[in-house]
Amino acid sequence: MERESIEDGQQDGHLETSLLGKYGSSSSSSYSKSGNSTTAVLYFSTFIAVCGSYVFGASIGYSSPAENGIIQDLGLSVTEYSLFGSIMTIGAMLGSVTSGRISDRFGRRGAMGIAQILCITGWLAILFAKGAWLLDLGRFVEGCGVGILSYVVPVYLAEITPKNFRGAFVAIHQFMVSIGLALTYFIGAVVSWRTLALIGIIPCLTQLLGLLIIPGSPRWLAQNGRVKECEVAIQRLRGKNADISEEAAEIEEFTESLKELPEGRILDLFQQIYARSLTIGVGLMLLQQFGGANGIVFYASSIFDAAGFSASIGSTLMAVIQIPTAVLGIILMDRAGRRPLLMISAVGTCLGCLLAGVSFSLQDHQLWKEGTPALVFVGIMVYNGSFGLGLAGIPWLIMSEIFPINMKGSAGSVVSLVNWFSSWIITYIFNLLMNWSSSGTFYIFSSISTLTILFVAKLVPETKEQTLEEIQASMHSLPEIE
Fold first, then answer.
1. pLDDT tens by residue, 385-408
2. Spatial CA neighbour of 95 closest among 160, 140, 54
3. Could you say which of 195, 287, 378, 402 would form a disulfide bridge with 452 (CB–CB 3.0 to 4.6 Å)?
4. In 43-78, which positions are buried (b, 16+ CB within 10 angstroms) versus exposed (e)?
5. How far apart are alpha carbons 374 and 378 in whole angstroms?
């Protein structure tokens, strides 16, 4: 029986190779007018989708400005509040595990709707909390919604956007995460924590209502045999006068060929044919987080305090700098390409962490006491700006591009879980590392950024100006075995 299963798996792999291979040589194809235009429907659909990205950022940013108010009003200890802050990540892990299946079962719009119902429930629980248990429950449920959103928003954007604009449109996801984080920080400085939770519901409701209007993902519709609805969705997205025949035909033909394959399961990801995609998707998420991402963002105030720099000034400027760098990333995404931006971003995070590490080393040896606080600040700004340029959003973009639609749900669940789990690890151990050695912590992060440069140079493909079908065919084509 085991031998038979292995042979069946090999046959499935060979079948998929031949099916995907049909599209690997079409890199020069274009969608006539439909692939080179944007429409009001596309912009509106993107806006509604990235309302979920804003909720993502607002959820991450909420715990910082709300800390003092919640501790004073509800009488929480620092340990109890730390649980409140971190339990969102646990919820996000649960949400990420189910995100792919939910998205495949209910569609991209349905998954966003379910996520926002969870987020609204979470915000309401926080709003009316009188003690720690309801506060934590609300934060956990909100995290479940955010875990789903972190996967489904970039996937939906990638599946509705023409190939020559896909990078920029998906990059708006990270831009709105940055906007959500920054605005939550600023608003939280002038309103109470309960009011801030109430304000957090607004983008959730905006997306819920907008989902009733925007078209579904053409690729998901085609995958589920709803060919006519797929064509209607493409026509709405490309404009009523656009020629969508070539785009629709390629999507439908590619999706139809994948129906000959078994439904993608998580265990199927570990076949040889998916080895490169899985390595790239998981590797980018691990390197993103273990390079210091959420550790530095979550604990920026304590970093500046340890350096002797004003925590309020430093944290505020950190929030501000994310916005222009995210905008620059959007502008350059489809011009410079994914690989160059990732490498420039990794070089910047490497230098930023190195600068911060050197500054703390100088402090450890009682050298240049008057200059090292500013040097730490500069290092963190360089890191944060560089991270926002590429590493913040491109791993999610590439994840949405490199897996075929029959495996996207399982792959998305795995890759998203890896991201959130590694985020939890780094946020959990960050203070322990800083207590061990502030300079050593940043040298470790700098070293991981160096590994990121090598990883991108060796493994990550350039995907700009290619259709999803072309990318997936080139990623998963293997030589035929006689």
1. 999 888 988 898 888 788 877 777
2. 140
3. 287
4. eebbebbbbbbbbbbbbbbbbbbbbebbbeebebee
5. 6
- Contacts for 365 with CB less than 8 Å, ≥ 6 apart: none
471 CB burial (10 A radius; 0-12, 13-18, 19+)? buried
Rounded to 5°, the CA angle 223-176-463 comes to: 50
Task: Give the pLDDT confidence of 49-59 residue by residue, as tens digits.
Answer: 999 999 999 99
Distance CA 147, CA 258 (A): 27
pLDDT bracket for residue 260 (50, 70, 90):
low
**Tokens matching residue 289:** 């987080």
Residue 5: pLDDT over 70: no
Query: What residue type is 142 in one-letter code?
Result: E
- Structure tokens belonging to residue 31: 């969608």
Report pLDDT for 258. 65
DSSP 289-300: HHTTHHHHHHTH
Q: How far is CA 107 from the centre of its chain?
A: 18
32: helix, strand or coil: coil
Place of tokens 């105030």: 301
Query: pLDDT tens digits for 267-289?
Result: 777 777 888 888 999 999 999 99
Task: Decide: 95 and 147 in contact? Cβ < 8 Å.
Answer: yes
Determine the pLDDT at residue 26.
43
Q: Which two tokens stand for residue 46?
A: 């993107």
Q: What average pLDDT score do residues 62-83 get?
A: 83
Alpha carbons 197 and 289: distance in angstroms, whole number: 27
Joined together, the tokens standing for residue 458 give 């060796």
The two three-digit tokens of residue 2, written as one number: 């085991």
**Cα–Cα distance between 41 and 242 in angstroms, integer?**
13
CA 149 to chain centre: 9
Using CA atoms of 320, 50, 266, 479 in order, give the dihedral in degrees to the nearest 10: -90
* The model's pTM: 0.77
Q: What is the pLDDT of residue 342?
A: 93
Q: Is residue 361 within 8 Å of 199, Cβ to Cβ?
A: no
CA–CA separation, 95 vs 8, rounded Å?
32
Tell me which of 20-24, 36-40, 403-407 is least confident: 20-24
